[in-house]
Amino acid sequence: MQLDNYIMTTIADRLAIAHSRIAQAAQKCDRQPSSIRLLAVSKTKPIEDIIAAYQAGQRCFGENYVQEGAEKITALKGDYPDIEWHFIGPLQSNKTSIVAQHFDWMHTVSRDKIAQRLNDQRPNELAPLNICIQINISAEDTKSGIDTDQMLPLAKLIAQLPNLTLRGLMAIPTATADTELQLKEFSTLHNLFQTLKLHYPSIDTLSMGMSNDLDAAISSGSTMVRIGSAIFGERNYPV
Ligand SMILES: *Cc1c(COP(=O)(O)O)cnc(C)c1O
């Protein structure tokens, strides 16, 4: 059934559906749909798919793999200079220069060393790299993101680095169909975001919510949802 669905619909159709899901979720909690940005997650997808989404009006894209992302950016930046590229995957410190040289945003900063290297390696002719701190909110035993009590010290470092701009927080919550648990984690993140905003009033980004937990994320204050499979279809290879 799902396969039929994907054959019948185009990327433009599915993008429109994603926008209407965002609008409906926003209306349910009295928020302006325009206060929530849609990041199209194009990992594993060919550049033709990115161009199809671009032609349907999409301008910001998320990539998870440094090398794959850098190749796509290099291939597309000549013809599509107004695409905004977001890095949303795990990053080893020996790969920071690729992110610093190619991307506009980096969502998964969780260590001082990574922040420092991104700052030092950001080319002077580029605008500062926009940064979200990744919070480890998941009940699962995962190592991505920092513990909540480390948020403020890391934010302090990032705010001092001239080639980085602190924009907010990002998290990948527990993969669960349990709405209660989704809401609990999202509301913890929202509280952390409010705390961070007291210290850094200019932050504006709470990056949370994916294809399966969009409603809970938006009702908890998400300002950027990251949607992949609901726009581009199932991933071309496992991640
Ligand atoms: C893959 C990915 C997404 C998109 O997930 P979908 O379930 O395909 O919408 C969002 N955020 C991150 C960090 C991802 O790695």
Protein model, in words:
There is one protein chain. The longest helix is centred in the last third of the chain and has 21 residues, at 179-199. The protein has a single domain (3-232), classed as Alanine racemase (TIM Barrel, Alpha-Beta Barrel). 43% of the residues lie in helices and 16% in strands. Helix 8 (179-199) links the parallel strand 6 (164-170) and strand 7. The protein starts with a helix and ends in a 7-residue tail after the last helix. 40% of the residues are buried. The chain has 239 residues and is α/β, with parallel strands linked by helices. The structure holds pyridoxal-5'-phosphate. Pyridoxal-5'-phosphate binds at residues 41, 43, 64, 88, 172, 210-212, 226-230. Residues 41, 43, 64, 88, 172, 210-212, 226-230 line the site of pyridoxal-5'-phosphate. Keywords: Pyridoxal phosphate. Residues 22-235 form the Alanine racemase N-terminal domain. This is Pyridoxal phosphate homeostasis protein. Belongs to the pyridoxal phosphate-binding protein YggS/PROSC family.
Task: Lay out the secondary structure.
Layout: H1 2-8, H2 11-28, E1 37-41, H3 47-55, E2 60-63, H4 66-76, E3 84-87, H5 96-102, E4 105-109, H6 112-121, E5 129-134, H7 151-160, E6 164-170, H8 179-199, E7 205-207, H9 214-219, E8 224-227, H10 229-232
Parallel strand pairs: 1-2, 1-8, 2-3, 3-4, 4-5, 5-6, 6-7
